[in-house]
Amino acid sequence: MTDRIRSIVIVGGGTAGWMAAATFARLLPAGAAKPSVTLVESDEIGIIGVGEATIPQMATFNRMLGIDEDDFLRRTKGSFKLGIQFVNWGRIGHSYFHPFGAYGVNMAGVSFHAFWLRLHQLGEAATPDDWSIEATAAARGKFMRPFDAGNSPLSNIAYAFHFDAGLYARYLREFAEARGVVRQEGKVVDVCLRGEDGFIEAVTLQDGRRIEGDLFIDCSGFRGLLIEGALETGYVDWSKWLPCDRAIAVPCEGVEEMTPYTRSTARAAGWQWRIPLQHRIGNGHVFCSAHLSDDEATAVLLDHLDGRPLADPRVVPFKTGHRRRFWHKNCIALGLAGGFLEPLESTSIWLIQSALARLMAMFPDRSFPAADIDRFNRLLLTEYEEIRDFLVLHYRATERDDSTFWDYCRNLEPPDRLKEKLGNFRNLGRSFRDNGELFNDTSWFAVMLGQGIAPRGYDPLADAMSLDETRRRLAEIRNAVANSADYMPPHRRFIAEHCGA
Ligand SMILES: Cc1cc2nc3c(=O)[nH]c(=O)nc-3n(C[C@H](O)[C@H](O)[C@H](O)COP(=O)(O)OP(=O)(O)OC[C@H]3O[C@@H](n4cnc5c(N)ncnc54)[C@H](O)[C@@H]3O)c2cc1C
Q: Are the C-beta atoms of 77 and 501 separated by less than 8 Å?
């Protein structure tokens, strides 16, 4: 018999708060053993509302909740994403695509990348995009979900979503409230700690309401009201590796062609995102305030929109890094309250999902076992570090020397693990996925190559196949990819037929 958790209090109703609420509503045991779940949020403070691009793992979250994907996209005015186009990152005038999924197929136990590099180094294969169904379809504005088509690339189309963050929070709220989560509107003005051990006992709202709980989930955004404001957990600053510290966000009118991908365009002191939704395009300029003022950043952003702005540009300051402990005492920080690595590869919502999955795997009782908490913190920290290294790669591996910002990035000292990965790639073009790391070998390969790193050679094991056979097999795969992309409908038509808002 354990001292089970009787009540959970979530502070914050942004994407993190409602994802947590929906997860608890769906997965905690029913009946008398079910803890009460209360979510406190303040309409006056509002949500950050800019996290609108995701990675394919999000479909697993939807499935876990039992959400119908078409309904979710209709309600959030969402679209599909096959990867990210990076413009001007390696050098001005150059672009590359980081696709979801994989290039080609591995053959005879050797990575496809090795065979491709062999032909590339002979001048016979310009871009690996021709061997990726996601990259090829994206370039043609096509999309469809995968279906069982045997060996065809159509059986394996990896995709994620773009959606309206405000509508998503509302959608999850409906889901969670229908399953018993109680929402309390109000501003938390005080956090009461237990005398004997400093655990959180209750939060007090502006109107005097006191909400007690056994377990507190801090989803209060950058302010980290509980984890930092009350528990003073500390923050690890990663801005020497990821120096951007502000964003200007503005939605604009959409255009006829709805691209099935996110675009990231490097600018003189940062980069600009473009996220196409059904009813508008989300845009933002992420930049480093040491090199650019808010006014300058806003002007750059407004100069590069597809349509008329639909709101005033909004400034969002941030500091890249993470809390020293994501789970401290009886408080777990999720979302921006836990840390932020900047949105370059759309990983923040995934980090919420991942932390929730780990929390459910290590759901505590009221003894709050220290070993479980340590494991949770260790695993999440590793994940943050692995993602950080992947993001740093984009800044570090560049030829750009047109601004002091890019001079800084080009010369920064990479974290050790990234240094090793750069060495692996520069030599024989190898890219590896370490243990359970989020980004796979395709992602590392796409970005290393895309950023302009040219490997000295290729995996010698690829020579086990004759050059003619390599050419024949690669041509076969490239044709299958091209034919599959031909077969796919335009992205906008697919949306209209399945999930148009
Ligand atoms: C510029 C930028 C771009 C991003 N782009 C992406 C992206 O493309 N993809 C992605 O995955 N992620 C992205 N993110 C991250 C993503 O926006 C967040 O991870 C996600 O929205 C979760 O935010 P949140 O719920 O933690 O915080 P918020 O949305 O800030 O929510 C905080 C909540 O806490 C409440 N609150 C705060 N203080 C109090 C109080 N005193 N009393 C009561 N309630 C309170 C607020 O009312 C609000 O409900 C981006 C972030 C930024 C900054």
A: yes
